[in-house]
Records
---
Amino acid sequence: MTTIVVVHTGSVTVQPIKDQFKEVMADARIINIVDDSLLNDVRAAGHLTPEVTSRLYTYMSNAQAMGADIILNACSSVGEATDLLRDMIRTPIVKVDESMAEEASRIGSRIGVVATVQTTLEPTTRLIQKKAAEHGRSISVTERIAEGAFEALLAGDGERHDTILKQTIMALAEQVDVVVLAQVSMARLVPALGKTRVPVLSSPRSGVEAVRRALAAL
């Protein structure tokens, strides 16, 4: 049986990714490692820290010891740590947002990125710019923070989270060719958006599809 270990920095990403695996790879064994102090520490520092990277290494090393065929990093805020750890961990590591970033850079030259956490916004923007550069594409990125949405979600007020986020997405969609939702926790809003002027991309589905492709390539 295929074993996939998913490393989360908060509980809000667990169910969306589990749901996608049920649809895409129902026979796989999914193991979730959750440490919500990782994102809290990144947010407190304002950036990825060596201490957070070290703890991620420990979790991914443990995943390797568990016999994981693939490790999925579920958090964009610590995605750049994954780039370092790929050279240290034998098990292949997939970033949940990497495929989404590449797709966004293909769709258009004006890319909007929406986040509810500042520490996710900047790494996502850098990842999109990196993917565009790899393919020789010229892009511009417009960033937006949905102020107060993440705090509402943590407080259990999903309705307020969705209202703030929807307003931010719809306003940004008027200015760009594609909107990227920078966090897995935001994907649950996509069905409620209805018809939008431009594509709105989220990472759970594309991230899980990237895992499936990576496994097929092994």
---
Amino acid sequence: MPITVGVMGMKSVALRAASVFTHPAPPHDFLALFNPLSSARQLRGVVTAVRPETPQSTTIAFRPGNGWSPHDAGQWARIGVEIDGVRQWRSYSLSAPAGSDPEITVTACGKVSAHLAHETRVGDIFFLAPPQGDFVLPTGPRPLLMLTAGSGITPVMSMIRTLVPRRPDADVVLIHSARDRESTLFATELAELSEQYDGLHVIHRFTGEDGRIDFSDAADLDALCPDWRSRKTYVCGPSEMLDAAESLWTNANLPDTLTVERFATATYAEVDGATGGTVTFEKSDREIEADGTTPLLEVGEEAGVLMPSGCRMGICRTCLTPLLSGQVRDLRTGEINATEGDLIQTCISAAAGNCHLDV
């Protein structure tokens, strides 16, 4: 009687046979010597293009390995990069259109972003986490207003690149603020797109010359986009701009038509004499001395631990990690938590003595 072996069974047999030759390393690790994107434990991507955008900003395209989920326009992803032998993780909006290989556009601000913007080369390897986020396009056609400032244009650029060339009924007004013309991201491409497609109208606001948009009342917005009240609006930029826009839309009884993307750290309470301790990352087998003011998320990332994270400001709860023992401090309130088994938010918690985390 013939024996039938399924595809999964054949794969399992092949892996066991290969392990004879790769022992003590598993076959996946041996394969990674020849294909750096092949890893059963960590999603990776290889840099395929590096394009300067401004003197301080760079677009980096990469090809992800198996396990990457195609992104929706406007989403972000966590990117890991090795710096001085330590794996650093940060979250970046994806600027490429949906359905294409991902890209990030990075402005040199901070250690990791500066490294990516100035030191990345074609062929470099990124460590990746799948894209996420709900700052995405509406499901049906409707007029849109995009309010952006500085690098806040990055997720919106993904939306524009996705929507405008593919939808003849697109109706998008983009109002983008930048310090000056030289620091304006995607200026040439936006000019070409607005020239080619009637559905895109671009307004640049150079704050060094024109000042910032005043959201204390509707006068500035009425002048820039008279029909803003009838549009679905997306806003991304500095916290002050987002807060002011939310207030204006609330006062206009239109809060449901506004979608905000925030990239800001949490506000921490001042705690005099806060002491830290030894943080043990149990699953990663790492022990790190930490002060009492640095978020545990950053402590782990600096030590090369793969830490779950999302918003990095205490909202999305993606970073929840079990506290196995010890105690931590909520950096927003100063409250101490010493309850074993509690899920703590590592992005807004610091060591308050020795502690053990299940990561």
---
Amino acid sequence: MSLFKYVPVLLLLFLALPAKSALQVNSPLPCHKTIKVGYNDWPPYAWQDPQGEAQGLDVDLMRAFAVYLGCEINFINVPAKRSHQMLKAGQLDVLMGATMTDERQAYAHFSSYYRDEELRLFVLDEQKDQINIDKWEDIFTKKLRLLVPSSGWYGADYQESQYRLEQEHLLVLSPDSDKSVQMLTYGRGDMIVGDTMAMPYIASQHQHIKLVPLKLVLDQNHIHLMLSKASMTPSQLEQFNQAIKALMDNGEITRVINKWQQMSLAKQSNMSRLNSPLKTLYVSP
């Protein structure tokens, strides 16, 4: 009699097992596949080294998120505009270092922010006493030519007055930040717009010159991961948010950011000790 007493209980346990197993197989885990992470050359946040490996602040953080989640990731170097098209089509799963906009939210999930960004105007060190602006309108009243990389977000003031800058011949577009710095040294613009860490880093590392930021702050934004709506689910987004929170709480994100800030400051300090005149470093084409 005791055997029959427990048969219904055993039968219920047996019937429950397949359902639990199916739930595990179908659960939207963040790493059911290798995650394709797009990036473009934007030091010190991301760039491709001579060996073809991704390097940079955002790259280090993305690797840390992947380790926390147990993810396999594949970094793919692509131009900025193309990377967004690939994310929209699901050919890339994640983009790093993104500012949230309404347009981008149409095709991407945005993670919790993991760092901040500040945009400012920069001039060559030797011109810091000649060029000063207190407000955006001073660009027009003083007829200052503004060098702007063609892809990116540069604040509401720039967005709203881009057409006016073009009409008054004060806007000089460039393919990227590196080329913008080169053009600044050639005298093709008076100022350059960019991220407060990236622009001085690019100038010192790639062009061996020192840039000085003007006091006007153009914009301040939280920076996020973008996950493709075509290839990544809201559940996967939540997993990445958990990783960001965990690494924020344990200090790993702060440690990585501080490391790259110190490296950037060190490179700029080295530039301030260079005594070679600018004309010996550059020859106009």
---
Amino acid sequence: MWTLSQTGAGTVASRLGQPDLGFASLDDMSNHAEMIANLDPAIPLIADADTGYGGPNMVARTVARYHRAGVAALHIEDQIQTKRCGHLGGKAVVDREVFTQRIKAAYQARLRLGSDIVIIARTDALQTHDYDEAVARLEEAFAAGADVAFLEGILSREQAEQVCKDLSPKPVLLNMVENGATPSFTPAECQEMGFRIIIFPFATIFPAYQASREALVRLKKTGKTGLASEYTPKKLFTIVGLEEASKIDAQAGGEMYGAV
């Protein structure tokens, strides 16, 4: 099954023009998540909820906001509030008890809301402590109500296989950041190792950057972007819902978009 994934790093870079160093607020992240989730509600969205943005009350508020936004699953991590990308050095995590409280607060909020949002517990303790501590945190997170485990910064295939084995039969997610700390694996390889979910947070960020940069460099050098003739304004608007908007207008008796 295919899903969408909202990456915190991508949100911070595209919406704020900043590095992933804890700049994003709950409003930044939840508003972006709502936009993505509602592009096509039939496709589930896994969204980054960072640290939950505070203590238990803020975590509960975060879950409520993501639930109302239409998010299918969210991941909450154990980094300190001034967090950073999981594939950068110099990270720091909160005590295990604080992480467990975050997950418990998320679980209790889900119960109060009558929501089916999936809670993914992410730990970065592999870099700050060791493998055993990271797995212990994930086991406690499951006991507190998490549905899926997320071990960030896996360093080898052996480690990847081991965490799936150690947490079995609970589902484990792999964060497949190309050219980051984790070796590159295909979805088929991940399934063989025992992962149930794999996300590719950089799959669209760098290709979009590369294409935009190349077009602008061409424009600067030649005075033309070099876009193929098929890329018309109408094609762009069709991609983002022109036909659906026209249909809604027509069904209501409108004629505003009949000639577009």
